[in-house]
TrEMBL record:
Residues 27-80 form the Clip domain. Keywords: Disulfide bond, Glycoprotein, Hydrolase, Protease, Secreted, Serine protease, Signal. SMART domains: CLIP, Tryp_SPc. It is an enzyme of class 3 (hydrolase). The gene is PPAF. Belongs to the peptidase S1 family. CLIP subfamily. Residues 1-21 form the signal peptide. The clip domain consists of 35-55 residues which are 'knitted' together usually by 3 conserved disulfide bonds forming a clip-like compact structure. This is CLIP domain-containing serine protease. PROSITE patterns: CLIP (PS51888), TRYPSIN_DOM (PS50240), TRYPSIN_HIS (PS00134), TRYPSIN_SER (PS00135).
Amino acid sequence: MAIRPQCVILIFSCLLAFSLSQYSYYGGQINTGCVGRCVAIQECPQLLSLLKQRPLQPQTIATLRQAQCGFEGRNPNVCCPDSSTVAVPLSSIRPKDVPPTQDLKLQAITRLSAWESHPNARLIPADECGIDNSQKIWGGNRTDMEQYPWTVLFQYQTSTGIKKFLCGGALITKRYVVTAAHCLARGDLRGSALLMVRLGEFDTEQNPDCERDLLSGKENCAPAPQDLGIEKIIVHPNYEARSSKRFDDIGLVRLDRDAQFNDFVKPICLPFDDTAPDRYAGEELVATGWGRTETMKASNVKLQVWLPVVSNADCGRIYQQKRISIGDGQLCAGGVVGKDSCAGDSGGPLMSTGISSRDGRTRYFVAGVVSFGPESCGAKDWPGVYTRVSRYTDWILNKLAE
């Protein structure tokens, strides 16, 4: 089996980008064996009353999510229980796609004094980073419009003159995006030139992005995405273009002007404390993106998938079959049929969650960036390989500028 070094693709990006998909982003199925009536939620008083609760509790979200039985256009239908249907207690629901807060193995931000003493620490938006206000309920692997607002798209002009989104990244400050070096290094671009970075995107085929509120019927629209130019490209000095090892596959893009933060454009936090060699092993992290690649059709809407992290030792034994070494600066996730490492855009983020010691809020951290994976996307027992961002936080800090 050959290795695809350039892009790691969402295994279900084509299948699940469409509204009639039967699969959830966690490898399960929407409730097609509905015991009751599969109707719009407005026609189901029992579930509509749950949807109106504020704030929405994790158990309530889980119940609504498990009740989904299909779509009517872009609106989800739910399995509405009839009078003979036995209700399922909320406390018995254990959602797999978004684990309960107590099961996230949340981390505290430590070593704050170490990085905050760095001269460039003032450039890190520590109070604003990693905050996601979305309360996603519907749509399988499809995200909400404002979910993961740090996810960006890179547009290139190919050697044939066509403009395409081929890589992704994560916004970390108003001026910097972290991504994979192979998305930036000339030796890997095969004649393509990076043109611009798009922030605040959800649906690449719709402008503006709009969704209809199920309760009010009101159409909510996002502001137009922000297209920013490139001021500077920074590739890690130890990265070797077109090398099968893909060590130090990380880079930065400095934007030509400040990003304007809003609900759809925010930075993600850097993982300053995640220095343990097998940090995340046994946990599940989330990747997001549009599955952009040069060779396969991708989704037009932003997608997500939760992935099990594989220890570096186990991952190294797997890739040894292809004479590829896995180093401490790398992180492996996926390798399970139905929720493989073919997740997100090349260079896009693999994310963990943690609790901020500043304010106690749960925040997202960029644990990895998509580096490479098996040629056969979704191959069993072959996880994808990500660059472990925590190994490069000092390098990132050193490269930041006003």
